[in-house]
Amino acid sequence: MQNLSQAASRIAALLAVALGFMAPAGASDLVVGGKNFTEQLILSSMTQQYLSAKGYKVDLKNGLGTTIMRQALESGQVDIVWDYTGTALIVYNKIDEKLDQDQSYERVKQLDAARNLIWLKPSALNNTYALAVPQKRAEEDGLHTIEDLANKINQSRQQDPDKKYLIGVDFEFASRPDGLEPLLALYGFAFERSEVKQMDPGLVYTALHNDQLNVGLTYSSDGRVQGFNLKLLEDSKGFFPFYSATPIVRKEILDANPHLAEQLNVLSAKIDTAKMTEMNKKVDIDQLPIAQVAADFLRAEGLL
Known about the structure:
Elements: H1 2-22, E1 30-35, H2 38-53, E2 58-64, H3 66-75, E3 80-84, H4 85-92, H5 101-113, E4 117-119, E5 129-134, H6 135-141, H7 146-159, E6 167-169, H8 171-175, H9 180-187, E7 196-198, H10 201-209, E8 215-219, H11 223-227, E9 230-233, E10 245-250, H12 251-256, H13 260-269, H14 273-284, H15 290-300
Parallel strand pairs: 1-2, 6-7, 6-8
Antiparallel strand pairs: 3-10, 4-10, 5-8, 5-9
């Protein structure tokens, strides 16, 4: 009986050592937040699974609207989120100055540091706006950039003034001061009012896929770009701002968890636009569960 008791004590001691090894010293409970669209649901699920594997106790609070998630981060209801430099510049800070990728990151990092919100290293995922055309049409017309599209439309109109081109955009982009009109002005082409189809963003992909539009406004890492065989036209004049996805953590959480920043930077370094587009496609087109897609990525990258 005594031997059994001593063995149980040794096993308990070994488990305690093992658990102590897995759990980071000083680690506290973490809450990962996320927005309410596919990419954000994947990123937040991925972060929860990754940090849980590192020994943290992690709760997930995603499915939030953009401003709601931001308020939750600022108020301490969530500790870690992924957000985009363009969103922080334009939506949170009302900055309409044209900045390049690095300038955008440094500006929002500086602004949020004053709020004790720390922007870690940005990933290579840039989920910005893009103009897209069906791949087949791009190949037939030799379209690689928005300039190519502008030249193609202008030349066609010279040959046939009655030629119609249809562009699909969401309601906001059609009217915002940094939206459709300045984009067309920069690239030197135009659409008549009847040629601009304002629609739900999701319908743009379907309309392009069904050849009901000539060109449409999309998001650069949306899975339907790959799933519907669309071609993103290069924004060679840099009209669209950068939306570099970056982990953001409250300072007090980083102070309490000294290895957390390094661990999240390792995760951030593994993510880019092509990988994210593929994951978005697996959820939106192939209908795989979000948690499975996130876990498969972590395993493939050696993070689980």
